[in-house]
Design goal:
This protein is of the alpha/beta class. It has one domain: Amidase signature (AS) enzymes (Alpha-Beta Complex), CATH 3.90.1300.10. Helix content is about 40%, strand content about 15%. It is built from 16 helices and 11 strands. It has helices at about 5, 10-30, 35-40, 85-90, 135-140, 155-165, 195-205, 240-245, 250-265, 275-295, 315-325, 325-340, 345-370, 390-395, 400-405, 435-450; strands at about 45, 50-55, 95-100, 145-150, 165-170, 190-195, 235-240, 270, 370-375, 410-420, 425-430. It has an 11-stranded mixed β-sheet, with helices on both faces. Strand 10 and strand 11 (about 425-430) form a beta hairpin. The longest helix is centred in the last third of the chain and has 25 residues, at about 345-370. The relative contact order is 0.14. The structure holds glutamine.
Length: about 450
């Protein structure tokens, strides 16, 4: 598959030829189920006429269905473009295909989609990760040059790691959330999934920037990074020892190899510890569910998508929501409503906000000494379908990614090796807020040394 950088150089004719071939290829690889269109037997949608970029099914593209891969939003058409779509079209890109995802971006395996599952392109018996599993599978399978995902607790970085791609979550506020269906508003960010670090920086430059339509968008001029990437810069990189010990053996091995490679390349490695990641998980699942319970209250049958056919208003609310949401979404709404209820607000919600502050202080302290933090992305490579029956077990696949969202930092996941079964393993660089430049420089430096080969 050509890179985004190469695709941006194609002539109009070459580009339309490329898109024709791409559609064919997507059809041939239907079994992957990366695109919602494949799962419902319809044609790949396109908006704009530029370089095709796949879009997660929770980002609005005017006139397209946008369903968050949920039953409740079947039939709902986006009335306007998300800011990121406007920016893409202005920069010579087009929205091309709707990518499958976990329902309302809640999950780590894309198994909760109303449309059915997406397969991991490297090993079809494994999950592609989630919630942006369709986006990562599309890029990993060579069915997209690049894709947009959203990351609330790791949903760009984790599936990118499982599918052997590069996934990047920008600093909170750097990329507009206008037109992204809200899951947990204080954590959500849109970001790129690409084949390499340079493409990630190119797409990030296109997406980033202040947007008056998003009140949490940071009012600062975006300093472009993609033209000045420097993989030879020498950096101080902190590795989190207790995180590495918690990972599975194969992940530990690859992480240790990468640390050695970074050291050999002239970076200074320092060793640090962080509080047990179980506190990150607890904090995240209180705050994210609290916000989700409020955000998803708008899906009541009155304004969006499906409406149950019943005679009273109360029955309409009950039945629309009861039939329309899947089990995981219901679990989160119940949990979120519980932690916000007056009797438990102090015990859970307020406490979680305090824990969030504590987590931030740890990052601040490490960044006093380090330019970057390097960690695993996931404890294990991609797992089997239906293997995580207990929701808590599923939640633990995010132990290395969610703290980054709680603190609003930028982070990138890149492939650093493979398991003995050939499954991709990822490494994550975390940078200071608004220092995407250093994050990309560090990632580029390791990418050059590792020279990961995608076999598809
Ligand atoms: N897997 C996490 C969850 O289920 C993160 C999801 C996300 O980043 N959207 O909430």
């Amino acid at each position: 598959m050509i890179t985004l950088k190469e695709a941006l150089q194609l002539s109009k004719d070459e580009l339309s030829e490329f898109k024709k071939d791409l559609k064919e290829k997507i059809k041939e690889q239907k079994q992957i189920g990366a695109y919602v269109e494949q799962l419902i037997d319809s044609d790949i949608s396109e908006y704009g006429s530029g370089v095709p970029i796949a879009v997660k099914d929770n980002i609005q593209v005017k006139g397209w269905d946008v369903t968050c891969s949920s039953k409740i939003l079947q039939g709902y058409k986006a009335p306007y473009n998300a800011t990121v779509i406007e920016k893409m079209v202005d920069s010579g890109l087009s929205a091309f295909g709707r990518c499958n995802m976990d329902e309302f971006a809640m999950g780590s395996s894309t198994e909760t989609s109303y449309y059915g599952k997406t397969l991991n392109p490297v090993d079809n018996t494994k999950v592609p990760g989630g919630s942006s599993g369709g986006s990562a599978a599309a890029v990993g399978a060579g069915l997209a040059i690049a894709a947009l995902g959203s990351d609330t607790g790791g949903s760009i970085r984790q599936p990118a790691a499982f599918c052997g791609c590069v996934g990047m979550k920008p600093t909170y506020g750097k990329v507009s959330r206008y037109g992204l269906s809200a899951f947990s508003s204080s954590l959500d960010q849109i970001g790129p999934i690409t084949q390499n670090v340079e493409d990630s920086a190119i797409l990030y430059d296109i997406l980033a920037g202040h947007d008056k339509k998003d009140s949490t968008s940071v009012d600062m001029v975006h300093q472009r990074v993609s033209e000045s990437l420097d993989g030879d810069r020498k950096l101080t990189i902190a590795v989190i020892e207790n995180y590495i010990v918690e990972a599975g053996d194969e992940v530990q091995k690859e992480i240790k190899n990468s640390i050695k490679a970074l050291e050999d390349a002239g970076h200074k490695i320092i060793y640090k510890n962080m509080i047990n990641s179980k506190y990150d998980v607890a904090t995240y699942y209180i705050l994210a569910t609290a916000e989700a319970s409020a955000n998803l209250s708008r899906y009541d049958g009155v304004r969006y998508g499906n409406r149950a056919d019943v005679s009273s208003l109360k029955d309409m609310y009950f039945k629309t929501r009861g039939d329309g949401f899947g089990d995981e979404v219901k679990r989160r709404i119940l949990l979120g409503t519980f932690v916000l209820s007056s009797g438990y607000y102090d015990a859970y919600y307020i406490k979680a906000q305090k824990a969030r502050h504590l987590i931030k202080e740890q990052f601040d302290a490490i960044f006093e000494e380090a330019d970057l933090i390097f960690t695993p992305v996931t404890p294990t490579p991609a797992f089997d379908f239906d293997s995580k029956k207990d929701p808590l077990e599923m939640y633990l696949s995010d132990i290395y990614t969610i703290a980054v969202n709680l603190v609003g930092l930028p982070a990138i996941s890149i492939p650093i090796g493979k398991s003995s079964d050939g499954l991709p393993i990822g490494g994550q660089f975390i940078a200071k807020a608004f220092d995407e430049k250093t994050m990309f420089d560090g990632a580029l430096s390791l990418e050059k040394i590792i020279d990961y080969k995608r076999e598809i």
